[in-house]
Amino acid sequence: MRLTLRNIKKILQCSIGLKCPRCCKGSLFKKRFSMFSHCPECELKYEREQGYFIGAMYINYGATVFLVFPGYFVTDLIINTPFWFNFCVWGVVSAIFPVFFYRYSKSFWLSFDFILNPNS
Ligand SMILES: [Zn+2]
């Protein structure tokens, strides 16, 4: 696959749909938190080496900070809630959001790696 802007856009769309970055047909997950080892359609190996998805943890952490940190200050400025309330709300969001975003962080990491290294 040649990497053009169109292909990169397609890969990222597949990533949002939790599909294989190469064929965009095979699912990444067989259950909520359980991944296939290979793509059921094109046999792309998902976990290329042990610890491969540590980069997904960085994506998940970054997305959580990107959501919670500005969210705290924006709600503090706009709604002017008490400190303890705002702190508790965004604390709960920072605990729940990574669980929700877990699958997407793995999918984005896999797509990011596929864009940079499509032939491995
Ligand atoms: Zn595939």
Number of strands: 0
Order of helices and strands: HHH
Shape: elongated
Bound molecules: zinc ion
Number of helices in the DSSP assignment: 3
Q: Note the beta-strand portion.
A: under 5%
Which stretches are poorly predicted, pLDDT < 50 over at least 5 residues? none
Compute the average pLDDT: 91
The total domain count is 1
How far the N terminus sits from the C terminus, by CA atoms, comes to 12 Å
The Rg value, from CA coordinates, equals 17 Å
Helical residues, percent: 55-70%
Describe this structure in words.
- The structure is a single chain.
- The chain is mostly helical and 120 residues long.
- The chain contains three helices and no strands.
- Helix 2 packs antiparallel against helix 3.
- Zinc ion binds next to loops.
- The site of zinc ion has 8 residues, from loops.
Secondary structure: elements and pairs:
Blueprint: H1 5-16, H2 54-78, H3 83-116
Helix pairs in contact: 1-3, 2-3
This protein binds zinc ion (ZN).
Quick take:
The protein is mostly helical and 120 residues long.
